[in-house]
Amino acid sequence: MATNAKADRQFNYDLDYRNLDLRQQPELYRVGKGEMGVLLVRPYKDEILPHWRFKTPEIARESSEKIYQLFLDYKAQGDFVGMDMARKFLQMGYTRSRRYANHASGQKYDGPVPADKKGQSGAHGREQLPRVEDPVKAESARIFYGVYLKAREDPDYKQLRKAWQEKYG
């Protein structure tokens, strides 16, 4: 039976993440796309999330530096899942602060998400709200983006990610 290679590489949302320790069972981890699973994978979520902040550039700088240090700590331990989760939190620091830079409320679209579309990304027929640039949040986004790129382009990370995806999909 042929498998869908793209589906095999997707983040598996069907696992019981509340009761799963992916440090003990790293073979169950899938990189997925972008920030997929960033708020699910334990124990990494519990280790990184308390440091994730972006309200001001000073807070964003401190947060991104701490998360990058966790990235380096995971790297020193040979823990690819931890490295990837730290990378995802850095990416999420960029995307969330960028969203608040564009939309003070954090909402991109007008109106509630239709019940049958909850958990999916996209406008789902809703109008996008007007953008108003907040320079403070924009600076927080720039700070996170720079650190995110440093993690994403780390040669060891790139090598481990490629090997991980070849081994586990």
Automatic annotation (TrEMBL):
This is Cytoplasmic protein. It comes from the Bacteria. It comes from Fibrella aestuarina BUZ 2. Residues 115-134 have a biased composition (Basic and acidic residues). The lineage of its organism: Bacteria, Pseudomonadati, Bacteroidota, Cytophagia, Cytophagales. Residues 103-134 are annotated as: Disordered. Pfam families: DUF4385 (PF14328).
